[in-house]
Amino acid sequence: MPAGLTGGRRLDLLDRVEKFIKRHRLLRPGDKVLVAVSGGPDSLALLHLLTRLKEPWRLSLHALHVNHGLRSEAAQDAAFVEAMGRQWGVPVTVATVDVRAERRAGESLQQAARRVRYRVLMETAQAVGARRIALGHQADDQVETVLMRLLRGAGATGLAGMRPRRGPFVRPLLAVARADIEAYCREFQLEPVLDPSNLSPHYLRNRIRHHLLPLLERDYNPNIRAVLSRTAALLREEDDLLEALALRAYRRLTKGREGRQDQPALPVEGLRRLPVPLARRVVRRALRVAGVNISAVTAAHVAAILALLDAGGAVTVPGGVRVRRQGEQLVLERSLVEPLADGSPGETAFPTGAAGLARGSGFQAELAVPGETTVPGLGLVLQAEIVEPPASGELVADPRAFSGPEEAVLDWDRVVPPVVVRSWQPGDRMRPLGLAGSKKLQDLFVDAKVPVDQRGRVPIVADQAGILWVAGLRVDERAAVTEKTERVLRLKARRVQ
Fold first, then answer.
1. DSSP 3-state of 474
2. Sign of CA dihedral 271, 273, 275, 278
3. Distances from the Cα of 458 to the Cαs of 51, 338, 427, in angstroms?
4. 8 A C-beta contact, residue 17 and residue 58
5. pLDDT, tens digit, for every residue of 449-460?
6. Are residues 193 and 98 in the same domain?
7. Is residue 64 domain-resident?
8. Domain for residue 417, yes or no?
9. Integer distance in angstroms from the first to the last C-alpha of the chain?
10. Mean pLDDT taken over the chain
11. Which of 359, 378, 402 is the last residue of a domain?
């Protein structure tokens, strides 16, 4: 066993983390895991713990360190992570990015760093063949996140905090307190690097960590961290239920409109009959389907839209969508697809409605999984179902044989929902299964001899991490079915009159 991987008094931390991994099905024996390692206490302890689990779980580990180019100590931090990787027998990739150069208008430096970091994590996982991406977020991070969102006025979804698992991203330390991680580092003589920006009062998270939380513990509730963690867990369960009910209500209210070439709309009376919490979620879902970056939509925006149920007028939300009362419908006009905070998908403006489709400018609809989705304006229905892989392993033998003009199979556990079906956007790239490296969709269309005037009508299935399937052409390598696949997302396309 590599040096530094033995210890005594705090073996219970390993047991706790392993039980958490099992309970939330974060990893499977034999997985290849990309571990995000900054060099700080949390990520270093995570890498150390996973290295101790490497043999019993038959894990294959690969570490990624992202140099954001923001601190003078960045080169030393990268060298430290590389040294730890050599000591523990874990290959390390160091990715150097220029966050300042990639920062977008209206985006803080921290937001830009997070977006770029998640993009690099996805790219590296794909390059090394990792099925899971392990992040070092721990219980105190969760508490701070909940308080940050509470101060900004978040609803149940935001107050539910971070989830143990979201698509390929897993957080094995989410139930472990920062104090326990620091004690673990001392016990195993780990010497993590320290980021001085974590002490700066300039950042809200640091003010919560160093001032607000200690105040709450001292003067109000000494168990405030446990209370907030428990509250977040309860809200996650309730949020899941409300989202399921809202999805059902949204499908019922929009039934029969999916394939129409007019503006997306919600019926006033149907929306009015819903309980307000569900109505709010239905509105947010409609905005997301229209291409809005929903993280930029506030509770005030949603309240203003619901006020249209009892009055005329219009409301414009960030992202270029205008919602107006037209008779007994709330109509959504003009859409702009914006990047999400975690780096998904690209920036391309396109109008919705009949005029936009007539020009071939674009379309987008959220994919019902499982269920059927009519692609706006194409006379095409996509059926999505989640199935168990065949025992014979025929899908693994050549998954490309099941992906073509009408059908594709994907590893559902590598998909980052929600999933949309949309039109091609300039700059789109993918890693076609069976081909080496990434490729522009424009080049893929040229190779396949797709006429220029037809490219805007090719359905693109994408999740929050990028393209999954170009219908009729290729699936992306990232979500390809392998011998480790437990759940298969099967997509079938059919024409309708």
1. strand
2. negative
3. 44, 20, 15
4. no
5. 888 878 888 889
6. yes
7. yes
8. no
9. 64
10. 82
11. 359
